[in-house]
Design a protein that fits this description.
heterodimer, A: about 250 residues, 7 strands, elongated, B: three-stranded antiparallel β-sheet, 6 helices, about 25% helix
């Protein structure tokens, strides 16, 4: 009886610890840094009110955003009533990743914040450095959330070069349109192929519209194959994500 | 051949047609005459007979050919040679203006004429203002001195009137798109559409001069034919004029084209409620067709700039101006860079402000 009770307690604790773990490494890609990442995740939760989760799996179903959403809710991720959290979900064999946000984390991780995290993480994933990628995921997420809580949400730096190029192209097109209209007003000689102003008294004596036949074709509605953005969640409400291949 | 100029009955000076008062006026003593008064005087002059004292013509007399003709100036008796179509010319000996009445009599007599409403000074002023409004025009092209070379010309036109009977057949489609289940359905209905009827055309102008560019003359439209009057050679005084050298039958092809295009367009506009309409058959028949010969007023300026000829025309009745003007490349580039630069700076500033505001 005692043995049975002990086994039961161990099982319960195991279950609790499994579901309480922020790092689920099905492919053993994070052996070196797992303890460090666990500790970082715990600190992250203590400092902020959202969870941070890291997961590796072998394969993706083809819709990694959906896979990540199912995985998040199946494993009971998320803190508070809204189950708020941010997750990096990597299918190592298919070389696909998904950065996933749910609950309050959706307010913090807007598209430019996703850009920031994605740019930093993909650098490591491309080199198959999963330890480095997940560490960077933690550091980047920490930076984004800290800025948000300080009242200065992350803003990507102003891209002077990009905007200079856009300005030159748009300004050039506008300038060409302007001088072209001035040039067009310099040439006013043209044939007048109509005699509309000399016409009057139109009398329509034949007015017949006859239906002949009808054809009907159909196409299947396109599927939703987004690579990110906001979608409905299996856990209710919606989630936001950014995914891709590396 | 007889040529004609109009002499003031008061002082003997050369009277010209005044566009402001629409009467004949002597620029020397300011006497004004109704055109009918001078017409009566012309007819009286015709009753005079010439001396008939001649000798046998020697050999190698100058023979008139199809392209040039010979006239005698009634003022000084000088012999003038002019192009076959010229109706008004100037005597090179005494500078008198001569109206060659044979060019506008008998079968060649115009049915109607629209007198000039704008005089030379008004034409030059309008042209000068027009040139100044063109931002890409080279500055030396706007030189007022060469604008003095503008000439007033009565251009021969054919005016065509007819009742056009059109008959058209179209293939039309109406498309409806709707979702149903997992599919999007597209339903296309096909129709046979017929339209027919009549459309009256009055005084469709086609220029009857080979020399005048057809596209330029068409660009000068419209003329207000309510102001057209019966032809009188008096209106030509002070201006140049040519008789037609494009026969009515030849010119009518252009009128037919314009009438057919307009008829098709007007009947096509009655086919409504379809997504696509294509013409399967169209035909136009003309009934009650007639042609009139008219002289219409044009101010013409021909100028050379950088070895290229530029022709500029103004409707002598309405003042409408047409012409292809040269473009100053330097001005073109300066405006492109200035406007483009200002626009580019605005776009850059807008992007920065949007970034500052957290929108980008």
């Amino acid at each position: 009886m005692r043995k049975l009770a002990s086994l039961l307690i161990i099982f319960i604790l195991l279950f609790v610890s499994v579901s309480a773990s922020a790092v689920l490494d099905d492919t053993d890609s994070l052996k070196e840094s797992r303890a460090e990442l666990e500790k970082a995740a715990e600190e992250f939760y203590n400092d902020h009110e959202i969870g941070i989760y890291m997961a590796t799996v072998r394969y993706s179903s083809g819709d990694i955003d959906y896979d990540a959403d199912v995985y998040y809710h199946k494993n009971g991720f998320g803190k508070g009533e809204e189950k708020s959290g941010i997750m990096l979900y990597v299918a190592t064999f298919d070389r696909e990743y998904c950065i996933y946000a749910y609950g309050k984390a959706m307010d913090i991780f807007k598209p430019n914040a996703f850009d920031y995290v994605e740019d930093n993480v993909v650098k490591y994933l491309s080199e198959t450095d999963f330890n480095g990628a997940f560490k960077e995921f933690y550091l980047s997420s920490e930076h984004i959330v800290s800025l948000y809580e300080a009242g200065t949400p992350y803003k990507a730096p102003f891209n002077y070069v990009l905007w200079a190029v856009i300005a030159v192209i748009v300004g050039g097109i506008a300038g060409i349109i302007y001088v072209s209209s001035l040039k067009k007003s310099m040439n006013t000689v043209h044939f007048n192929h109509r005699a509309t102003r000399y016409a009057e008294g139109m009398n329509v004596s034949v007015l017949r519209d006859m239906f002949l036949f009808r054809t009907v074709t159909r196409v299947r509605k396109p599927q939703n194959n987004s690579s990110g953005g906001s979608r409905s969640s299996v856990g209710g409400g919606s989630f936001s994500s950014r995914s891709g291949k590396f | 051949m007889a040529a004609q100029e109009f002499r003031c009955l008061n002082c003997g000076g050369e009277a010209v047609f005044d566009t402001t008062s629409q009467k004949m006026k002597c620029p020397f003593c300011d006497a004004e005459y109704e055109t009918d008064a001078l017409k009566s005087y012309e007819e009286a002059l015709k009753e005079d007979t010439d001396d008939d004292m001649h000798f046998e013509a020697p050999a190698n007399q100058w023979e008139e050919n199809a392209s040039v003709k010979r006239y005698k100036c009634n003022t000084c008796g000088g012999r003038i040679i002019a192009n076959a179509e010229e109706g008004v010319t100037t005597c090179p000996y005494c500078d008198s203006e001569i109206i060659i009445t044979e060019q506008f009599s008998g079968d060649l007599k115009p049915d109607t004429v629209i007198p000039f409403k704008l005089n030379k000074k008004e034409a030059i002023d309008k042209l000068y203002k027009y040139f100044n409004s063109k931002k890409l025009l080279p500055n030396d092209f706007k030189d007022k001195r060469h604008l003095q070379e503008i000439k007033g010309i009565y251009v021969p036109f054919w005016l065509y009137s007819a009742k056009a009977k059109g008959n058209y057949r179209y293939r039309a489609t109406r498309v409806r798109v709707y979702p149903l289940g997992d599919y999007i359905y597209t339903e296309t209905s096909f129709f046979l559409v017929q339209r027919g009827g009549t459309l009256q055309f009055n005084n469709v102008p086609v220029d009857g001069s080979e020399k005048m560019p057809d596209d330029m003359m068409e660009s000068l439209e419209p003329y207000d034919l309510n102001e057209a009057v019966d032809f009188n050679t008096a209106y030509l005084a002070g201006f140049l004029a040519d008789r037609y050298d494009v026969e009515s039958e030849t010119a009518s092809k252009r009128a037919n084209e314009r009438i057919a295009n307009t008829s098709e367009e007007q009947f096509r506009s009655t086919v409504v409620g379809y997504n696509a309409v294509t013409v399967e058959h169209s035909s136009v028949q003309l009934e009650e067709s007639k042609a009139k010969y008219a002289l219409l007023p044009v101010w013409l300026l021909t100028t050379k700039w950088k070895d290229k000829k530029y022709v500029f025309a103004m409707n002598g009745q309405t003042g409408k101006m047409v012409g292809d003007l040269p473009v100053d490349k330097g001005k073109y580039l300066r405006r492109l860079l200035t406007f483009g630069g200002i626009f580019a700076s605005s776009v850059f500033l807008l992007g920065y402000l949007l970034w500052l505001g957290g929108i980008l």
